[in-house]
Here is the input.
Amino acid sequence: MSTKEQKVKVDADYSLMPVPGHARRNIVTMFMIMLGFTFFSASMWTGQELGAGLDLSGFIGSLLLGGIILGIYTALLAYVGCKTGLSMDLLAQHSFGKKGSYLPSALISFTQIGWFGVGVAMFAIPVAKPDKPWMVPLLVAVAGICMTGSAFFGIRAMTIVSYISVPLIAMLGIAAMVIAVRTGDASLTEKFAESQGLSIITGAGMVIGSFASGGTATPNFARFAKTPKAAVWTTIIAFFLGNSLMFCFGAFSGVYVGGNDIFEVMIALNLTLFAVIVLGLNIWTTNDNALYSAGLGLSNITKIKKSPLVLISGALGTITAIWLYNNFTGWLNVLNCTLPPVGAILVLGFFCHKEDYAQDKENTLEVNWFAIAGVVLGAVIANVVPVGIASINGMAVACICYLVGEAVNKKGK
Here is the structure.
Protein backbone atom coordinates (compact mmCIF):
# COMPACT_ATOMS: atom_id res chain seq x y z
CA MET A 1 0.00 0.00 0.00
CA SER A 2 1.39 3.42 -0.96
CA THR A 3 1.98 6.22 1.52
CA LYS A 4 -0.79 8.23 -0.13
CA GLU A 5 -3.28 5.39 0.25
CA GLN A 6 -2.34 5.00 3.89
CA LYS A 7 -3.01 8.69 4.50
CA VAL A 8 -6.39 8.44 2.81
CA LYS A 9 -7.29 5.47 5.01
CA VAL A 10 -6.24 7.32 8.12
CA ASP A 11 -7.79 10.71 7.27
CA ALA A 12 -10.73 10.61 4.87
CA ASP A 13 -11.21 14.36 5.32
CA TYR A 14 -7.74 15.26 4.01
CA SER A 15 -6.98 17.69 6.81
CA LEU A 16 -3.36 18.19 5.77
CA MET A 17 -3.38 17.33 2.05
CA PRO A 18 -5.34 18.09 -1.16
CA VAL A 19 -8.49 16.09 -1.87
CA PRO A 20 -7.60 13.53 -4.57
CA GLY A 21 -9.75 12.89 -7.63
CA HIS A 22 -11.23 9.62 -6.38
CA ALA A 23 -12.66 11.34 -3.28
CA ARG A 24 -14.56 14.02 -5.22
CA ARG A 25 -18.36 14.04 -5.00
CA ASN A 26 -21.20 14.51 -7.49
CA ILE A 27 -23.03 17.78 -8.07
CA VAL A 28 -26.22 16.78 -6.19
CA THR A 29 -24.24 15.89 -3.07
CA MET A 30 -22.28 19.14 -3.26
CA PHE A 31 -25.49 21.14 -3.66
CA MET A 32 -27.04 19.48 -0.59
CA ILE A 33 -23.92 20.09 1.50
CA MET A 34 -23.66 23.74 0.49
CA LEU A 35 -27.39 24.39 0.88
CA GLY A 36 -27.35 22.83 4.34
CA PHE A 37 -24.38 25.02 5.20
CA THR A 38 -26.36 28.17 4.38
CA PHE A 39 -29.36 27.11 6.48
CA PHE A 40 -28.09 29.26 9.34
CA SER A 41 -30.60 30.04 12.09
CA ALA A 42 -28.87 33.28 13.09
CA SER A 43 -29.59 34.56 9.55
CA MET A 44 -33.26 34.55 10.54
CA TRP A 45 -32.43 37.18 13.17
CA THR A 46 -31.12 39.35 10.35
CA GLY A 47 -34.25 38.56 8.33
CA GLN A 48 -36.41 39.82 11.19
CA GLU A 49 -34.43 43.10 11.22
CA LEU A 50 -34.84 43.43 7.46
CA GLY A 51 -38.57 42.82 7.75
CA ALA A 52 -38.82 45.45 10.46
CA GLY A 53 -36.94 48.09 8.48
CA LEU A 54 -37.92 47.62 4.82
CA ASP A 55 -41.05 47.54 2.74
CA LEU A 56 -41.58 44.49 0.52
CA SER A 57 -39.80 45.87 -2.56
CA GLY A 58 -36.87 47.05 -0.41
CA PHE A 59 -36.67 43.65 1.26
CA ILE A 60 -36.54 41.87 -2.11
CA GLY A 61 -34.01 44.39 -3.44
CA SER A 62 -31.73 43.84 -0.44
CA LEU A 63 -31.92 40.06 -0.86
CA LEU A 64 -31.05 40.31 -4.56
CA LEU A 65 -28.18 42.78 -4.20
CA GLY A 66 -26.70 41.19 -1.08
CA GLY A 67 -27.20 37.68 -2.42
CA ILE A 68 -25.41 38.47 -5.69
CA ILE A 69 -22.38 39.96 -3.91
CA LEU A 70 -22.23 37.15 -1.36
CA GLY A 71 -22.64 34.60 -4.17
CA ILE A 72 -19.71 36.08 -6.12
CA TYR A 73 -17.49 36.08 -3.02
CA THR A 74 -18.22 32.47 -2.11
CA ALA A 75 -18.12 31.32 -5.74
CA LEU A 76 -14.55 32.62 -6.09
CA LEU A 77 -13.56 30.75 -2.95
CA ALA A 78 -15.33 27.63 -4.24
CA TYR A 79 -13.41 27.83 -7.52
CA VAL A 80 -10.08 28.14 -5.73
CA GLY A 81 -10.90 25.36 -3.28
CA CYS A 82 -11.97 22.93 -6.00
CA LYS A 83 -9.16 23.84 -8.40
CA THR A 84 -6.50 23.19 -5.76
CA GLY A 85 -8.27 20.58 -3.64
CA LEU A 86 -7.10 22.53 -0.59
CA SER A 87 -8.97 23.54 2.55
CA MET A 88 -9.14 27.17 3.62
CA ASP A 89 -6.29 26.59 6.05
CA LEU A 90 -3.97 24.95 3.50
CA LEU A 91 -4.72 27.77 1.07
CA ALA A 92 -3.75 30.18 3.83
CA GLN A 93 -0.30 28.59 4.00
CA HIS A 94 0.34 29.87 0.47
CA SER A 95 -1.01 33.40 1.00
CA PHE A 96 -0.07 34.02 4.63
CA GLY A 97 3.02 31.81 4.97
CA LYS A 98 3.35 28.56 6.90
CA LYS A 99 3.19 30.14 10.34
CA GLY A 100 1.25 33.17 9.16
CA SER A 101 -1.62 30.80 8.29
CA TYR A 102 -2.11 30.22 12.01
CA LEU A 103 -3.90 33.59 12.23
CA PRO A 104 -6.74 32.79 9.80
CA SER A 105 -6.92 29.24 11.19
CA ALA A 106 -7.27 30.56 14.73
CA LEU A 107 -9.88 33.12 13.64
CA ILE A 108 -12.04 30.56 11.82
CA SER A 109 -11.72 28.04 14.65
CA PHE A 110 -12.57 30.56 17.35
CA THR A 111 -15.59 32.04 15.56
CA GLN A 112 -16.97 28.68 14.41
CA ILE A 113 -16.72 27.10 17.87
CA GLY A 114 -18.48 30.19 19.18
CA TRP A 115 -21.29 29.97 16.64
CA PHE A 116 -21.56 26.24 17.29
CA GLY A 117 -22.21 26.92 20.97
CA VAL A 118 -24.69 29.69 20.17
CA GLY A 119 -26.49 27.36 17.75
CA VAL A 120 -26.81 24.59 20.35
CA ALA A 121 -28.34 27.07 22.80
CA MET A 122 -30.64 28.45 20.07
CA PHE A 123 -32.15 24.98 19.86
CA ALA A 124 -32.29 24.14 23.55
CA ILE A 125 -33.68 27.38 25.00
CA PRO A 126 -36.88 27.75 22.90
CA VAL A 127 -37.64 24.00 22.91
CA ALA A 128 -37.33 23.57 26.71
CA LYS A 129 -40.49 24.11 28.72
CA PRO A 130 -40.39 27.21 30.96
CA ASP A 131 -41.48 25.25 34.04
CA LYS A 132 -38.75 22.64 33.54
CA PRO A 133 -35.40 24.48 33.63
CA TRP A 134 -33.48 21.20 33.80
CA MET A 135 -34.48 20.56 30.18
CA VAL A 136 -32.15 23.28 28.88
CA PRO A 137 -28.84 21.65 29.91
CA LEU A 138 -30.20 18.25 28.86
CA LEU A 139 -31.15 19.47 25.40
CA VAL A 140 -27.83 21.31 25.10
CA ALA A 141 -25.98 18.08 25.85
CA VAL A 142 -28.05 15.96 23.45
CA ALA A 143 -27.84 18.50 20.61
CA GLY A 144 -24.12 19.07 21.18
CA ILE A 145 -23.36 15.35 21.08
CA CYS A 146 -25.40 14.75 17.90
CA MET A 147 -23.97 17.73 16.03
CA THR A 148 -20.43 16.95 17.12
CA GLY A 149 -20.93 13.36 15.98
CA SER A 150 -21.67 14.21 12.35
CA ALA A 151 -18.72 16.64 12.24
CA PHE A 152 -16.47 13.98 13.79
CA PHE A 153 -17.33 11.42 11.11
CA GLY A 154 -16.66 14.05 8.47
CA ILE A 155 -17.97 14.80 5.04
CA ARG A 156 -19.80 11.47 4.68
CA ALA A 157 -21.89 11.92 7.83
CA MET A 158 -22.50 15.58 7.04
CA THR A 159 -23.77 14.56 3.60
CA ILE A 160 -26.31 12.21 5.19
CA VAL A 161 -27.51 14.94 7.56
CA SER A 162 -27.88 17.36 4.64
CA TYR A 163 -29.81 14.88 2.48
CA ILE A 164 -32.30 14.37 5.31
CA SER A 165 -32.49 17.93 6.60
CA VAL A 166 -32.48 20.17 3.53
CA PRO A 167 -35.74 18.93 1.92
CA LEU A 168 -37.56 18.82 5.27
CA ILE A 169 -36.51 22.33 6.28
CA ALA A 170 -37.39 23.78 2.88
CA MET A 171 -40.79 22.08 2.58
CA LEU A 172 -41.97 22.61 6.17
CA GLY A 173 -40.63 26.15 6.38
CA ILE A 174 -42.19 27.26 3.11
CA ALA A 175 -45.49 25.60 4.06
CA ALA A 176 -45.51 27.50 7.36
CA MET A 177 -44.88 30.82 5.58
CA VAL A 178 -47.72 30.17 3.13
CA ILE A 179 -50.14 29.28 5.94
CA ALA A 180 -49.11 32.39 7.89
CA VAL A 181 -49.81 34.63 4.90
CA ARG A 182 -53.17 32.99 4.17
CA THR A 183 -54.37 33.16 7.76
CA GLY A 184 -52.93 36.61 8.49
CA ASP A 185 -55.02 39.71 9.06
CA ALA A 186 -53.37 41.61 6.19
CA SER A 187 -51.67 40.97 2.88
CA LEU A 188 -47.92 40.52 2.56
CA THR A 189 -47.45 43.96 0.96
CA GLU A 190 -49.45 45.64 3.74
CA LYS A 191 -47.53 43.84 6.48
CA PHE A 192 -44.15 44.87 5.12
CA ALA A 193 -45.36 48.42 4.46
CA GLU A 194 -45.84 48.84 8.22
CA SER A 195 -42.08 48.59 8.80
CA GLN A 196 -39.66 51.00 7.12
CA GLY A 197 -36.46 52.86 7.92
CA LEU A 198 -33.58 50.98 6.28
CA SER A 199 -32.14 51.65 2.83
CA ILE A 200 -31.61 48.85 0.30
CA ILE A 201 -27.82 49.36 0.54
CA THR A 202 -27.93 48.99 4.33
CA GLY A 203 -30.14 45.94 3.97
CA ALA A 204 -27.78 44.41 1.40
CA GLY A 205 -24.90 45.02 3.79
CA MET A 206 -26.77 43.10 6.49
CA VAL A 207 -27.39 40.24 4.04
CA ILE A 208 -23.69 40.06 3.15
CA GLY A 209 -22.47 40.46 6.71
CA SER A 210 -24.76 37.77 8.07
CA PHE A 211 -22.83 34.96 6.38
CA ALA A 212 -19.69 36.42 4.83
CA SER A 213 -17.66 35.03 7.74
CA GLY A 214 -19.08 31.53 7.41
CA GLY A 215 -18.77 31.78 3.64
CA THR A 216 -15.01 32.22 4.03
CA ALA A 217 -14.88 28.51 4.92
CA THR A 218 -16.38 27.59 1.51
CA PRO A 219 -13.13 25.93 0.26
CA ASN A 220 -13.41 23.37 3.08
CA PHE A 221 -16.43 21.88 1.30
CA ALA A 222 -16.07 22.98 -2.33
CA ARG A 223 -12.71 21.13 -2.57
CA PHE A 224 -14.73 17.90 -2.73
CA ALA A 225 -16.50 18.94 -5.97
CA LYS A 226 -15.50 17.08 -9.14
CA THR A 227 -15.06 20.19 -11.29
CA PRO A 228 -14.61 23.92 -10.61
CA LYS A 229 -17.76 24.58 -12.64
CA ALA A 230 -19.80 22.31 -10.37
CA ALA A 231 -18.26 23.92 -7.28
CA VAL A 232 -19.04 27.43 -8.47
CA TRP A 233 -22.64 26.86 -9.54
CA THR A 234 -23.65 24.76 -6.55
CA THR A 235 -22.19 27.43 -4.27
CA ILE A 236 -23.86 30.37 -6.03
CA ILE A 237 -27.27 28.72 -6.13
CA ALA A 238 -27.01 27.33 -2.60
CA PHE A 239 -25.95 30.62 -1.05
CA PHE A 240 -28.53 32.61 -2.98
CA LEU A 241 -31.41 30.24 -2.25
CA GLY A 242 -30.42 29.12 1.24
CA ASN A 243 -29.69 32.57 2.62
CA SER A 244 -32.76 34.10 0.99
CA LEU A 245 -34.96 31.41 2.49
CA MET A 246 -33.54 32.05 5.96
CA PHE A 247 -34.11 35.79 5.63
CA CYS A 248 -37.69 35.17 4.49
CA PHE A 249 -38.29 32.86 7.44
CA GLY A 250 -37.09 35.58 9.83
CA ALA A 251 -38.91 38.44 8.10
CA PHE A 252 -42.23 36.59 7.82
CA SER A 253 -41.97 35.60 11.46
CA GLY A 254 -41.39 39.21 12.44
CA VAL A 255 -44.24 40.77 10.46
CA TYR A 256 -46.81 38.06 11.24
CA VAL A 257 -46.13 36.81 14.78
CA GLY A 258 -43.54 39.25 16.13
CA GLY A 259 -40.79 36.63 16.40
CA ASN A 260 -37.45 36.20 14.68
CA ASP A 261 -37.53 32.71 13.18
CA ILE A 262 -39.81 30.18 11.51
CA PHE A 263 -39.96 28.18 14.76
CA GLU A 264 -42.19 30.87 16.27
CA VAL A 265 -44.41 30.99 13.19
CA MET A 266 -44.95 27.24 13.40
CA ILE A 267 -45.64 27.40 17.14
CA ALA A 268 -48.23 30.13 16.50
CA LEU A 269 -49.84 27.83 13.91
CA ASN A 270 -49.93 24.95 16.47
CA LEU A 271 -47.34 22.98 14.49
CA THR A 272 -45.17 22.34 17.55
CA LEU A 273 -43.65 19.00 16.51
CA PHE A 274 -42.77 20.28 13.05
CA ALA A 275 -41.36 23.44 14.62
CA VAL A 276 -38.95 21.44 16.80
CA ILE A 277 -37.90 19.28 13.81
CA VAL A 278 -37.23 22.30 11.57
CA LEU A 279 -35.37 24.22 14.28
CA GLY A 280 -33.18 21.26 15.20
CA LEU A 281 -32.31 20.23 11.65
CA ASN A 282 -31.76 23.83 10.57
CA ILE A 283 -29.18 24.38 13.29
CA TRP A 284 -27.63 20.94 12.81
CA THR A 285 -26.83 21.45 9.11
CA THR A 286 -24.83 24.59 9.90
CA ASN A 287 -23.36 23.55 13.23
CA ASP A 288 -21.65 20.41 11.97
CA ASN A 289 -20.16 22.43 9.11
CA ALA A 290 -18.94 25.04 11.59
CA LEU A 291 -17.33 22.42 13.82
CA TYR A 292 -15.78 20.71 10.81
CA SER A 293 -14.14 24.01 9.80
CA ALA A 294 -12.95 24.58 13.36
CA GLY A 295 -11.34 21.12 13.35
CA LEU A 296 -9.53 21.81 10.08
CA GLY A 297 -8.27 25.13 11.40
CA LEU A 298 -6.91 23.60 14.58
CA SER A 299 -5.42 20.76 12.54
CA ASN A 300 -3.42 23.28 10.53
CA ILE A 301 -2.04 24.82 13.73
CA THR A 302 -1.32 21.59 15.63
CA LYS A 303 -0.66 19.23 12.67
CA ILE A 304 -2.98 16.73 14.38
CA LYS A 305 -5.71 14.95 12.42
CA LYS A 306 -9.07 16.74 12.38
CA SER A 307 -11.22 14.16 14.19
CA PRO A 308 -9.94 14.46 17.79
CA LEU A 309 -9.86 18.24 17.48
CA VAL A 310 -13.53 18.22 16.44
CA LEU A 311 -14.36 16.32 19.64
CA ILE A 312 -12.49 18.85 21.77
CA SER A 313 -14.10 21.78 19.93
CA GLY A 314 -17.57 20.25 20.20
CA ALA A 315 -17.16 19.62 23.92
CA LEU A 316 -15.96 23.19 24.47
CA GLY A 317 -18.82 24.68 22.45
CA THR A 318 -21.41 22.49 24.19
CA ILE A 319 -20.18 23.18 27.72
CA THR A 320 -20.11 26.95 27.14
CA ALA A 321 -23.25 27.10 24.94
CA ILE A 322 -25.55 28.98 27.31
CA TRP A 323 -22.79 31.42 28.30
CA LEU A 324 -21.93 32.05 24.65
CA TYR A 325 -25.59 32.63 23.80
CA ASN A 326 -26.06 35.13 26.64
CA ASN A 327 -22.75 36.96 26.52
CA PHE A 328 -20.84 36.45 23.31
CA THR A 329 -23.11 36.85 20.29
CA GLY A 330 -22.27 40.54 19.97
CA TRP A 331 -18.54 39.80 20.04
CA LEU A 332 -18.97 37.09 17.43
CA ASN A 333 -20.63 39.63 15.14
CA VAL A 334 -17.59 41.89 15.58
CA LEU A 335 -15.24 39.00 14.87
CA ASN A 336 -17.23 38.18 11.73
CA CYS A 337 -15.62 41.24 10.13
CA THR A 338 -12.18 39.62 10.44
CA LEU A 339 -12.93 36.69 8.14
CA PRO A 340 -13.98 38.28 4.81
CA PRO A 341 -10.51 39.92 4.50
CA VAL A 342 -9.03 36.43 4.89
CA GLY A 343 -11.16 35.11 2.02
CA ALA A 344 -10.25 38.05 -0.22
CA ILE A 345 -6.54 37.41 0.33
CA LEU A 346 -6.92 33.66 -0.35
CA VAL A 347 -8.56 34.38 -3.72
CA LEU A 348 -6.07 37.10 -4.61
CA GLY A 349 -3.15 34.90 -3.58
CA PHE A 350 -4.33 32.12 -5.87
CA PHE A 351 -4.71 34.33 -8.94
CA CYS A 352 -1.40 36.10 -8.29
CA HIS A 353 0.47 32.79 -8.05
CA LYS A 354 -1.49 30.32 -10.18
CA GLU A 355 1.72 28.77 -11.51
CA ASP A 356 2.88 27.89 -7.98
CA TYR A 357 -0.40 26.08 -7.27
CA ALA A 358 -0.23 24.30 -10.64
CA GLN A 359 3.29 23.07 -9.89
CA ASP A 360 2.37 22.25 -6.27
CA LYS A 361 5.07 24.56 -4.96
CA GLU A 362 5.13 25.22 -1.23
CA ASN A 363 5.37 28.75 0.08
CA THR A 364 8.79 29.00 1.69
CA LEU A 365 7.84 32.24 3.46
CA GLU A 366 7.15 31.71 7.16
CA VAL A 367 4.97 34.79 7.58
CA ASN A 368 3.56 37.17 4.96
CA TRP A 369 3.28 40.28 7.09
CA PHE A 370 1.43 42.20 4.38
CA ALA A 371 -1.33 39.55 4.40
CA ILE A 372 -1.47 39.69 8.20
CA ALA A 373 -1.68 43.48 8.07
CA GLY A 374 -4.46 43.17 5.50
CA VAL A 375 -6.59 41.09 7.85
CA VAL A 376 -5.95 43.34 10.86
CA LEU A 377 -6.51 46.63 9.03
CA GLY A 378 -9.42 45.20 7.05
CA ALA A 379 -11.15 44.11 10.26
CA VAL A 380 -10.60 47.52 11.87
CA ILE A 381 -11.96 49.39 8.84
CA ALA A 382 -14.94 47.04 8.58
CA ASN A 383 -15.83 47.67 12.22
CA VAL A 384 -15.29 51.42 12.47
CA VAL A 385 -16.06 52.98 9.06
CA PRO A 386 -19.80 53.78 8.91
CA VAL A 387 -19.93 54.38 5.14
CA GLY A 388 -20.49 51.59 2.61
CA ILE A 389 -20.79 47.86 3.30
CA ALA A 390 -18.58 46.69 6.17
CA SER A 391 -17.51 43.34 4.70
CA ILE A 392 -16.61 44.87 1.32
CA ASN A 393 -14.69 47.71 2.99
CA GLY A 394 -12.64 45.16 4.92
CA MET A 395 -11.95 43.05 1.84
CA ALA A 396 -10.89 46.09 -0.20
CA VAL A 397 -8.35 47.14 2.44
CA ALA A 398 -7.03 43.58 2.70
CA CYS A 399 -6.54 43.36 -1.06
CA ILE A 400 -4.66 46.67 -1.14
CA CYS A 401 -2.32 45.53 1.64
CA TYR A 402 -1.66 42.21 -0.08
CA LEU A 403 -0.97 43.83 -3.46
CA VAL A 404 1.40 46.34 -1.85
CA GLY A 405 3.25 43.35 -0.40
CA GLU A 406 3.41 41.71 -3.83
CA ALA A 407 4.90 44.87 -5.32
CA VAL A 408 7.45 45.20 -2.50
CA ASN A 409 8.49 41.54 -2.83
CA LYS A 410 8.92 41.79 -6.60
CA LYS A 411 10.98 44.95 -6.24
CA GLY A 412 13.21 43.24 -3.67
CA LYS A 413 13.98 40.28 -5.97
About this structure: The mean pLDDT is 88. Residues 89 and 300 are 6 Å apart (CA to CA).
